[in-house]
Amino acid sequence: MPFTNFDARHFSATEKTATNTAITSLETALATKLANLSPEERQQYGSVNEQNKLIINKVKDFRDTQPALSSPDVDWTEFANDHDTRLYIQNLIQRLESLLDGLKNSKILHDWDNYQAALNDYEFAKYKNGTSATGYETKVNELKQFFTGGPVGSTTEPPKTTEE
User: Fold this and answer.
1) CB within 8 A of 90, min separation 6: which ones?
2) pTM: predicted TM-score of the whole model, two decimal places
3) Which letter does DSSP use for residue 162 in this model?
4) Where are the alpha helices (DSSP H) in 31-158?
C-alpha cells in the first residue's frame, strides 16, 4: 500500500458522528458493568491465572455433567452467571482490542502521511528561502530547530518520541 495521501481513510462528518454516537452508546451500556480496581485490588483479584482458569473450567465441566458431585455450599446459579459473563466480556475485549489495533495502525499511517508532507513543505521552504523569496527565512529557521545532525541542508528525521 502506498504510504501517502490516505483519502479513502478519512472520516466524513457523518462517519465521525456515527462512530462517536456508537462509542457513547457503548459507554452508556457498559457503565454499570465496569469495575475500577486499585492496584492492590488488581493484585489480589488478578491471581486467577491460566492454570486457575483450567481449574474453573474443570469444575464447571463436572457441574454440567455430574451435578450430584457438586458442593451444596456453592451458589451454582451465580457460578454459571459469572462464567458466562466472563466469557462474554473476554469476547468483547478481543473485539475491542482488534478495533483498537486497527485504529492505532490507521493513526500511525496518518501520522506518517503528515510527516512526509511536512518534510516536503520544509524542503520547499528551504528552496524558496534559497531564492530569497519573502517570508521563507523565518519559516525555515522555525522548522530547522526540529532537525538535528546531518549535513547542513539535509532533513534528517527528528528524534523518535513515544506514541501519543
Assistant:
1) none
2) 0.75
3) -
4) 39-45, 50-65, 76-130, 136-144
The answer to whether 113 and 6 have CB atoms below 8 angstroms apart is yes
Q: Round to whole Å and give the CA distance between 46 and 53.
A: 11
C-alpha cell at 83: 462464567
Alpha carbons 154 and 144: distance in angstroms, whole number: 10
CA gyration radius for the chain?
27
Q: Which residues of 104-134 are buried (b: 16+ CB within 10 A; e: fewer)?
A: eeeeeeeeebeeeeeeeebeebbebbeeeee
Q: 81-88, long-range: CB within 8 Å, 24+ apart, which pairs?
A: 83/56
8-16 long-range Cβ contacts below 8 angstroms, 24+ apart: 9/106, 9/109, 9/110
| Spatial distance between the Cα atoms of 109 and 6, rounded to a whole number of angstroms | 8
Report pLDDT digits (tens) over 108-139.
999 999 999 999 999 999 999 999 999 999 99
Apex 143 CA angle, 105 and 106, nearest 5:
10
Backbone angles phi, psi at 18, to 5 degrees: -65, -45
